[in-house]
Amino acid sequence: MIISFDLDDTLIPGIRRFPTEPGNLWHRLFSKEKIRAGTIRLMKVLRQNDYNVCVYTTSYRSPFYVRKLFFSYGITIDRVINKRIHDKVLGARGGQISKYPPAFDIDIHVDDAPGVGIEGERHHFNTIIIAENDPDWEATILNRLGLSENVVKQH
Ligand SMILES: [Mg+2]
What we know:
InterPro entries: HAD-like_sf (IPR036412). This protein has helices at residues 25-30, 39-48, 63-71, 83-90, 114-123, 137-144, and strands at 2-5, 52-56, 79-81, 108-111, 126-129.
């Protein structure tokens, strides 16, 4: 299974404010941007359940930058789709839809924007929309995926 995550206001605070993961030295040297508290644990559970993890953002952050940002927290991102890549792959259609995960073989996309959920219904792709102020956002995602933090596979 391939899952993708939005960045702004989903994993990185922007207009929405939420607690962030404590930064380490590597992270502080690399970037001022911080990721949402709970992301490290969530990604670990997804990995242990054989998910491929992607970032799908409508920003122009470079894939190299995004990979490094997450890697500074010990998180590996398999693929980064930014606005430039979205426009290139979708061509003329790219301007009509903010995100189209099936074009990148993504099975389910996580976002804060209700509009992306509506696009998902209209264009037949799966989304998990995190409601504003959902304190259990990781549990919301894991429940939707049929995973529980307690059934992490032992290797
Ligand atoms: Mg967003």
